[in-house]
């Protein structure tokens, strides 16, 4: 049976009209692309923010623009984001065969999900996904930069970093698999305090030094799991962008922090 998880935040976090959404994503990516210099190594994993595009779309685009060179090799995206509305124990699949946005449907990777079925921390909760924005806002970017991929969408609730890392290791694969962690940083601090706190958090990520708390990042759990796996796999993190809503479209009394970080694998070639 073909069950589609319909878009929940189109028209709120990003445009609901297909052409307007295409134009906005293309514009954000063009600005990000212009900021890249030299040869870019295709990332194995990304950390991207998940606020409305007016707030954090430019930061997210800095990460997604780095996928251009791998657009024909990436076939699977393992997408993890925190639950904001419905609590869940473990990492929740949606029980859907596709996720929809105004740009069309993204097929869920049934084969990959079968491989997760033996892990007790992986559960199914349509409710956890129904109104959740942390995964959905990433899809229009992915649909724009990757022509042919299937999705493994996991809404992360009460789980350990080790449980998250086990899921990532199970689906690690090769160049055909991209891992995307959706997370903002601190929430509702004054502008200058947020800059300090978020700077410290990003430094810990760049040192692969988890775990992170949910005060440091709302997606602290999936980030912490990625950091464990990144240490084991010897990934190299790269800071692409760091700002907050006071820099983009909000006031500076209570801000939310955003970062874009890519993780690349060690090259086997000459150094």
Helical proportion, percent range? 25-40%
Q: Domain count, please report it.
A: 1
**SS class:** alpha/beta
Structure annotation, total helices: 10
Could you say what the CATH architecture is?
3-Layer(aba) Sandwich
CATH superfamily membership: LigB-like
* Biggest sheet statistics: 9 strands, mixed
Number of strands: 12
The average pLDDT is 96
Identify the overall geometry: globular
Instruction: Please report which band the strand proportion falls in: under 5%, 5-15%, 15-25%, 25-35%, 35-45% or over 45%.
Output: 15-25%
Instruction: Point out poorly predicted stretches.
Output: none
| CATH topology tier name | Protocatechuate 4,5-dioxygenase, Chain B
End-to-end CA span? 50 Å
What value does the Rg take, in angstroms? Answer: 17 Å
Order of helices and strands: EHEHEEEEHEHHHEHEEHHEHE
CATH class: Alpha Beta
């Amino acid at each position: 049976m073909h069950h589609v998880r319909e878009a929940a935040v189109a028209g709120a976090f990003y445009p609901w009209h297909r052409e307007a959404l295409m134009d906005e994503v293309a514009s954000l990516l063009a600005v990000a692309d212009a900021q890249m210099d030299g040869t870019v190594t295709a990332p194995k994993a990304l950390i991207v923010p998940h606020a409305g595009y007016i707030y954090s779309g430019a930061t997210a685009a800095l990460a997604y623009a780095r996928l251009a060179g791998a657009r024909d090799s990436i076939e699977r995206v393992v997408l993890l984001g925190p639950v904001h509305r419905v609590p869940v124990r473990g990492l929740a699949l949606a029980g859907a065969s596709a996720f929809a946005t105004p740009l069309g449907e993204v097929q869920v990777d049934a084969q990959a999900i079968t491989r997760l079925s033996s892990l007790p921390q992986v559960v199914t909760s349509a409710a956890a996904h129904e109104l959740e924005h942390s995964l959905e806002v990433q899809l229009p970017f992915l649909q724009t930069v990757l022509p042919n991929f299937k999705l493994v969408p996991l809404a992360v609730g009460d789980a350990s970093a080790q449980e998250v890392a086990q899921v990532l290791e199970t689906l690690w694969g090769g160049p055909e698999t991209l891992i995307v962690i959706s997370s903002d940083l601190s929430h509702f601090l004054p502008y200058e305090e947020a800059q300090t706190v978020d700077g410290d958090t990003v430094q810990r990520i760049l040192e692969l030094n988890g775990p992170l708390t949910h005060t440091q990042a709302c997606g602290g759990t999936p980030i912490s799991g990625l950091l464990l796996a990144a240490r084991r796999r010897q990934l190299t993190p790269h800071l692409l962008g760091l700002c907050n809503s006071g820099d983009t479209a909000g006031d500076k009394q209570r801000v939310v922090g955003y970062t874009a970080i890519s993780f690349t694998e060690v090259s086997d070639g000459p150094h």
